[in-house]
Amino acid sequence: MSTNRLFTLEEATQLLPTVRQLLIEIRAAKAALDVRTAELDRLAAMTGGNGHLAGDMASARKAIEAAGVELERLMAELDDLGVELKGIDDGLIDFPTTREGRVVYLCWRLGEDEIAWWHDVETGFAGRQPL
Asked: 3-class secondary structure for 60-83?
């Protein structure tokens, strides 16, 4: 995390639409990267080390690089907000907050309508408790 920002529930809730959209874009960028990586793997298997398809492989590598740059950009944008991305595939986001004098996380997962859970820093998603 690039900042030490602590959120109130209200602040996290206000930021949720932005976080939701960024997470959707991050998941799409990761999916695009996965597809491009699989295509490069397919091309590499077809060449058999004989140099055929070198141009296609170079194009595939450039596509992977571009997809990776986009994914990193989106993740940095999310990080700049002060939230923590805990899982792209699961759509998990934590908002650092305080509870009873200690730092904990407000926990939200893509698909949930609101932030309704929290957990200790050490327990992670498995330790989610209702607010």
From this structure: HHHHHHHHHHHHHHHHHHHHHCCC
Strands (E), the chain: 84-87, 92-99, 102-109, 117-120, 129-130
As a whole number of angstroms, the distance between CA 117 and CA 111 comes to 13
Return the structure tokens found at 120: 């200790």
Does this model's pTM top 0.85? My answer is yes
Q: Are 74 and 88 in contact (CB under 8 A)?
A: no
Q: Which residue in 121, 120, 122, 112 sits closest to 12, CA to CA?
A: 112
**pLDDT higher than threshold 60 for residue 31:** yes
pLDDT digits (tens, 9 = 90+) for 74-117: 999 999 999 999 999 999 999 999 999 999 999 999 999 999 99
CA separation for the pair 131, 119 (Å, rounded): 9
